[in-house]
Amino acid sequence: MSNEQKTIQTIFVPKRLQIDTVVALVLLRKYGEKYYPGVSTAVLTFFRQPPEGKTAEQLEQEGILPVDMLGGVFDHHRETRSQETESVSQLVAKELKIQDDPALKKLLRFAYRDDIEGKGVLSKDAIDRSFGLPGLLNNLVRQYPEDPQRVFDIVEPVILGHLAEETMRHHVLPDDYRKKFDEGKVDAFLIPFRGKELRALTIDSDRKGMVGFLKAHPNIKADIVAQRFASGHINVVTNQQLTLDLAGVAERIRLAEAKARNMHESEFDASKLRDRARTDDFPMWYLDDTSRTVQNGGIDPEGTEPTKLSLEDVKLAIVEGLNDSDSQKKERVSSDKHPRSSKNRNSERVVYTALFVDDVAALKAAFPPVHPNEQYHHSTIQYKPDDGINGISVGVKHSIHVKGRVTTDAIDALLVENNASENAYPHITLSTAEGVKPVQSNKEIETAAKRGEILPLDATIQVTEGYYDGSREVTR
Fold first, then answer.
1. Domain region containing 306
2. Whether residue 218 has pLDDT greater than 90
3. 377-418 confidence digits (pLDDT tens)
4. How confident is the model at residue 343 (pLDDT cuts 50, 70, 90)?
5. Which of 103, 386, 409, 433 lies at a 20 to 30 A Cα distance from 321?
6. Measured between alpha carbons, how far is 139 from 136 in angstroms, rounded to an integer?
């Protein structure tokens, strides 16, 4: 690339197209405009033999960019084949400063392997080799020997399609997930199941590839995802390798749907609540045994009525329904949001429901006590709830975000994201001064917020849903 930028009007290309050349041209046209103005719309001119009389640099000054010929910056050819250590697509990526983009990693490796190593398709299966891209490109070159432009026009959209998917996976979806997380639209939690813990997550997102991203991401590896679209449709998708029986989940969802729609028991057939596919009473929900999903319209929900349920309703249905489907017969929890209840637990005394800290010692080590009366144990959901433990899922684990800290002469507390809390500022009281009760944290935090005296923090704490019965914490 010369110091003085010239508008590129023409690209010189070898007439016989190869995978590496096609990839290089696609990268130039898609990413090269910043460094080579005009390259995205430049005309391709094909040569069987490189034109003589001018160097690559001279041609570039005339608005002509040679690719893989004439010894220019994009010519990977050397005197002997063994001296060729870089593909032309790698040269293009380096020149455009995109060689480290994870979205290009597979494509650049594919082009290098095909051109430098001569291993375009590794499979020895005849069908795989026939329908692999290198084989198809060779067929096109032989089919249209005098029309390389036609060959390029056929193959370019295939490469661009791959790039679009990789860009979605490595950039768009991670960025959208981080944004949703920061907005409090992600709820990650653990579900005790068969002696293990399933990683579950609910999210508000319209990205159709979000579920696959959440299941595949090495730091998330979600086993179960409930995704809500802006339209209100919610889909529950699981890791198919786990072969989870979702009949109980479908039953709980359909019962919750009945409650949300004020349907009387006489208005639906209770014997079909666990049925596969779609039922006449709840046509908006589809239980798919093959894909291990419970869908409210799938990724293209047009024509399907959106559910009346919230993500919290669906989360409760997942937690309870999974263990019910696994033949672990438990009393069923109910609330205004859910039609069933646990009579045994609901009859117990409930002083407050809360998210209880799993590792108090670790929390204390991270945030040492300021006052003599140490607390550190929970973030309140509701104090003396009228309906007992209805509306919570005892034993469900969460990772909650620590947003800030308030320290006064009376209290020391962490502000946390606890969307179920009735408090204006959900928090975990760390310690209090002599004679100060933990409940004082509410007023102290409210005052600090008005004065702008909250110290911002960014941390996570592992907690478990449960309740306090006056003598002990119940989290299982």
1. 183-341
2. no
3. 999 998 888 777 777 888 888 899 999 999 999 999 999 998
4. very low
5. 386
6. 5
Report the domain count for the chain.
3
- The last residue of one of the domains, among 299, 316, 341, is 341
Is the residue at 89 inside a domain? yes
Q: Mark out the alpha helices in 64-206 (DSSP H runs).
A: 88-95, 105-115, 126-131, 133-143, 148-167, 173-182
Listed residues 341, 365, 399: the one ending a domain: 341
- Could you tell me the strand order of the sheet in which 43-47 lies? 43-47, 10-14, 64-66
Amino acid at 230: A
Instruction: Quote the tokens at residue 354.
Output: 């809360």
Q: Are 40 and 27 in contact (CB under 8 A)?
A: no
Contacts 24+ apart (CB under 8 A), 187-191: 187/311, 187/315, 187/398, 187/419, 188/220, 188/222, 188/398, 188/399, 189/315, 189/396, 189/397, 189/398, 189/399, 190/396, 190/397, 190/398, 191/224, 191/318, 191/319, 191/322, 191/396, 191/397
Residues 444 and 470 in one domain: yes
Give yes or no: residues 159 and 26 share one domain.
yes
**How is residue 249 written in tokens?**
């989940």
Tally the residues of the chain: 476
